[in-house]
């Protein structure tokens, strides 16, 4: 906001205050990856995708098939803490069900290639 000098004895100049705006950078996003194995039942993978990643049954089935055919698929893209939590939740469910379903996270390179990796979100 501009500041005006006092008219009595001031020189009549207007002093201005520079407004600085700070822009926060968007947090880096991480891919949550599901890996294929030969032992985890397909129905379990679909259930996990619906429960942890809130996918519809058709989206979960589509991603499960992508993972089965390609070896890996992107279940979602999240800030680090959310990605880490979701991967841990998948690991916990897999451990409880005594299946070797592997879920990992990796930094997103930001190239927009979500659909090629099986990303449905």
Would you mind describing this structure in some detail?
The chain is an alpha+beta fold and 121 residues long. The chain contains 3 helices and 5 strands, in the order βββααβαβ. It has helices spanning 42-53, 57-70, 80-96, and strands at 3-4, 14-15, 29-35, 72-79, 102-107. The strands form 2 sheets. The protein has a 3-stranded antiparallel β-sheet with strand order 4-3-5. It has a two-stranded antiparallel sheet with strand order 1-2. Helix 1 (42-53) crosses helix 2 (57-70). The longest helix has 17 residues, at 80-96. The model has no long low-confidence stretch (mean pLDDT 87).
Please supply descriptive tags for the structure shown above:
single chain, 121 residues, alpha+beta, Ribosomal Protein L30, Chain: A, three-stranded antiparallel sheet, two-stranded antiparallel ribbon, 3 helices, 21% strand, elongated
SSE-based structural type: alpha+beta
Under the CATH scheme, which architecture of the domain at 39-107 would be assigned?
2-Layer Sandwich
CATH classification, class level of the domain at 39-107: Alpha Beta
Going by CATH, the homologous superfamily of the domain at 39-107 would be Ribosomal protein L7/L12, C-terminal domain/Adaptor protein ClpS
Please state roughly what percent of the residues sit in beta strands, choosing from under 5%, 5-15%, 15-25%, 25-35%, 35-45% or over 45%: 15-25%
Largest sheet: 3 strands, antiparallel
Low-confidence stretches: none
Give the strand line-up of the largest sheet: 4-3-5
**Into which percent range does the helicity of residues fall?**
25-40%
């Amino acid at each position: 906001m501009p500041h005006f000098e006092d008219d009595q004895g001031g020189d009549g100049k207007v002093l201005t205050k520079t407004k600085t705006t700070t822009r926060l950078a968007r947090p880096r996003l991480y891919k949550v990856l599901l890996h294929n194995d030969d032992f985890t039942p397909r129905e379990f993978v679909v259930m996990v995708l619906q429960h942890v990643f809130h996918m519809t049954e058709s989206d979960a089935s589509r991603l499960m098939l992508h993972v089965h055919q390609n070896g890996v698929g992107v279940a979602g893209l999240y800030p680090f803490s959310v990605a880490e939590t979701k991967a841990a939740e998948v690991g916990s469910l897999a451990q409880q069900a005594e299946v070797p379903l592997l879920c990992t996270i990796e930094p997103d390179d930001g190239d927009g290639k979500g659909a090629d990796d099986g990303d449905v979100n």
